[in-house]
Amino acid sequence: MSVFHSLVSALVLSRLDYCSSFLIDLPLTHIQRLQSVLNATARLIFNLRRCDHITDVLISLHWLCVPERIIFKVATLTYRALHGSTPPYLASSFTCVADMAHQCRLRSEQLDMPTCCQSTIAFPVAAAKVWNGLPSDVMAASLLSVFKNRLKTYFLCRCYETV
Length: 163
Known about the structure:
By secondary structure, the protein is an all-alpha fold. The protein has one domain (about 5-160). It has 8 helices and no strands. It is elongated, with a radius of gyration of 17 Å.
């Protein structure tokens, strides 16, 4: 990876990933603008023109599309919160469905969806929505690195229908 690639990635991708839980339900027009920024960044790295096709470049960079990128960041933070590697205030925002006595135990990994009055921040609501939509083999990962690998593979297949 070149220094230029690292610099562009650090400056642009960090901004795209900032406050991902607030971007979950962003309107499509805003998502498309963010995707344009991501595409322009890839074109800059590979010195491509605006009319050049970008999908192969994004695949070669292993970059997810913006909607999947947002979900990836929220899911990773949720995994960390559920496994005790975040501040306690994040972990205390979640209740597993399996831990609730009155709930049917269909999928023990699922999170209870907090109601608006239970939560004063957007993260627990977004995280529960994202987490409950993940495949069970991804949620069941025992290590963060395995979780990220499975999740990124799942999203790359979903984004580009390849890999």
